[in-house]
């Protein structure tokens, strides 16, 4: 079984639980959003706090970090944009009438989902609401975005003349058990995906393959064709709510309240691995270099060999649920409801995994060579038998 690891550094600056952790695209900074109503900016180079964003009137539910700007959303019904250098609040987006659960930044758009049953689209630069998406019967928990250029053929695009000005689409998952796909330009609902019998907690999009995956409190994951709205497959083996999803190389990883992660081969729907050892719900997942990292309600992070399912390491030290994890430069960052950001060195785990992969490839190579020699021998024997029989 995996051995215990101790953190390289423990950051205790927040005065409340950390609800989310975001890594900038260039990997230079991390952003934490907390129950204390503030966000903090951290450097991945020195693990120091280099920014403290104050202004929200209630706890921060979620955050998103770009290279030059940070975004936070809050139970105070607002979203804020911050300058990562000066720490100055650059914009406040007002309009939601309840807790803002999620935000998503794509191109020049800022999308948000709220307990007020709506999703909204904002101009990132102008502090202005562009569109409101109204139609869910309950709160909007999760968001995804894509362009129809990524999924539609030319003839299909021509059928959507009304929407040709903008080809952006927003996907929303709700506690009303539905997933909806919306045209951003008009706010019109393009598809309502029906099938779940519980709240939709997570979404993951594979636009090039025209597929959307949704996880729910009904214990299932469903996959949909995002052009036709057709339900393609239902993954049914979990015994608890599906909380988080990760898609890597046509393998789908799902973390659940049943204390397991499962790996599915998307093309067939086959469950090919189950990762056990968690003593509580699996709250967050991250795949890195053949290793599956998990965060759990049991306050531990874990590293599994993604192929064999073998537990390689347990990271102990947090006091409460780990809400989010990030990985950069062979360091694992874990953010917890205990208010701490912990940093762990995962070089040893990565090295062992590389050695194991190298060994497996070597064994496979030898068995492949044996197989080739065996086939060659059998072919020769076959030819000799045929000659003796005069065939």
From TrEMBL:
| Source species, domain of life | Eukaryota
User: Which Pfam families does the protein's record reference?
Assistant: WD40
SUPFAM superfamilies named among the record's database cross-references = WD40 repeat-like, YVTN repeat-like/Quinoprotein amine dehydrogenase
WD repeat residue numbers? 11-43, 93-132, 169-192, 193-234, 235-274, 315-347
CDD domains listed in its UniProt record: WD40
Coiled coil segments of this chain: none
Q: Which of UniProt's keywords are assigned here? A: Repeat, WD repeat
Query: Which InterPro entries does the protein's record reference?
Result: Quino_amine_DH_bsu, WD40/YVTN_repeat-like_dom_sf, WD40_PAC1, WD40_repeat_CS, WD40_repeat_dom_sf, WD40_rpt, WDR86-like
What PANTHER family does the database record attribute to this sequence?
A: PTHR44489, WD REPEAT DOMAIN 86
Annotated protein name in UniProt = WDR86 protein
Organism of provenance? Ptilonorhynchus violaceus
Gene name, Swiss-Prot/TrEMBL: Wdr86
């Amino acid at each position: 079984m995996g051995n215990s690891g101790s953190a390289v550094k423990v950051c205790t600056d927040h005065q409340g639980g950390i609800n989310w952790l975001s890594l900038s695209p260039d990997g230079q900074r991390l952003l934490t959003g907390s129950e204390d109503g503030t966000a903090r900016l951290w450097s991945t180079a020195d693990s120091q706090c280099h920014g403290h964003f104050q202004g929200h009137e209630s706890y921060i539910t979620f955050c998103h970090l770009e290279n030059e700007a940070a975004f936070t959303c809050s139970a105070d019904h607002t979203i804020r944009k911050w300058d990562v250098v000066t720490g100055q609040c650059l914009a406040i987006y007002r309009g939601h009438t309840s807790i803002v659960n999620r935000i998503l930044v794509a191109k020049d758009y800022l999308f948000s989902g709220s307990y007020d049953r709506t999703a909204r689209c904002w101009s990132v630069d102008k502090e202005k609401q562009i569109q409101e998406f109204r139609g869910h019967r309950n709160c909007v928990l999760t968001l995804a975005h894509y362009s129809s250029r990524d999924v539609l053929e030319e003839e299909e695009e021509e059928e959507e003349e009304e929407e040709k000005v903008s080809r952006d689409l927003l996907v929303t998952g709700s506690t009303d058990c539905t997933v909806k796909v919306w045209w951003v330009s008009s706010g019109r609902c393009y598809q309502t995906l029906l099938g779940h019998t519980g709240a939709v907690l997570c979404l993951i999009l594979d636009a090039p393959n025209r597929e959307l995956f949704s996880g729910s409190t009904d214990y299932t994951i469903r996959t949909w064709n995002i052009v036709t709205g057709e339900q393609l497959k239902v993954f049914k083996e979990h015994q608890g709510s599906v909380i988080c999803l990760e898609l890597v190389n046509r393998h789908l990883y799902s973390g659940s309240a049943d204390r397991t992660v499962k790996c599915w081969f998307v093309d067939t729907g086959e469950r090919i691995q189950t990762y056990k050892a968690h003593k509580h719900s699996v709250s967050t997942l991250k795949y890195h270099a053949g290793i599956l990292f998990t965060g759990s309600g049991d306050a531990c992070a874990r590293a599994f060999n993604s192929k064999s399912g073998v537990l390689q390491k347990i990271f102990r030290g947090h006091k409460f649920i780990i809400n989010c994890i990030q990985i950069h430069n062979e360091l694992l960052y874990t953010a917890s409801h205990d208010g701490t950001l912990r940093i762990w060195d995962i070089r040893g785990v990565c090295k062992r995994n590389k050695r194991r992969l190298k060994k497996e490839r070597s064994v496979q190579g030898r068995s492949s060579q044996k197989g080739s020699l065996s086939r060659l021998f059998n072919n020769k024997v076959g030819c000799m038998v045929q000659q003796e029989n005069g065939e």
